[in-house]
Amino acid sequence: MATVTKKELIGRIAERTQAKRVLVKRITQAFLDEIIVELSRSNRLEFRDFGVFETRTRASRIAQNPKTLERVEVPAKRTVKFKMGRLMRENLCAPTEEESAKVK
């Protein structure tokens, strides 16, 4: 599994759209900043066919340090949940070429 960075994505988008990298970088960063702002306001973000981002609150709980076996209280915290949309599900769940070749 390869790691793709924001820089690489910006390069691909700039190449595909023939736009300057600086402009693509500014737009991409503004988009990501808006996602952060909306999630921090506990708003739900829905991108049709891509997926949905929403915040959830995890309840506080008692955990145990595996080394010392000491009990520790873990406070409640907010997390982000992502549920993939239709197009993403279809692309991720479709058999790969390698899997298709093994079946034959």
Task: Describe what you observe in this structure.
The chain has four helices and five strands; from the N terminus they run ααβββββαα. It has helices at residues 6-17, 21-40, 86-93, 97-103, and strands at 45-47, 51-58, 61-64, 71-74, 77-84. It has a three-stranded antiparallel β-sheet with strand order 1-2-5. Strands 3-4 form a two-stranded antiparallel ribbon. A hairpin with a 6-residue loop joins β3 (61-64) and β4 (71-74). α1 crosses α2. The chain is extended. The mean pLDDT is 92.
List the helices and strands and how they pair.
Blueprint: H1 6-17, H2 21-40, E1 45-47, E2 51-58, E3 61-64, E4 71-74, E5 77-84, H3 86-93, H4 97-103
Antiparallel strand pairs: 1-2, 2-5, 3-4
Helix pairs in contact: 1-2
What are its keywords?
alpha+beta, 104 residues, 5 strands, HU Protein, Chain A, 2 domains, 3-stranded antiparallel sheet, single chain, 4 helices, two-stranded antiparallel ribbon
CATH architecture term of the largest domain? Irregular
Q: Indicate the CATH class of the largest domain.
A: Few Secondary Structures
Q: How many angstroms does the end-to-end distance come to?
A: 25 Å
The SSE order reads HHEEEEEHH
Largest sheet: 3 strands, antiparallel
Rg over CA atoms: 20 Å
Tell me the structural class.
alpha+beta
Number of domains: 2
The mean pLDDT is: 92
CATH superfamily of the largest domain: IHF-like DNA-binding proteins
Characterize the overall form: extended
- Helix content range: 40-55%
Strand percent estimate:
25-35%
Q: So how many helices? A: 4
Strand order of the largest sheet: 1-2-5
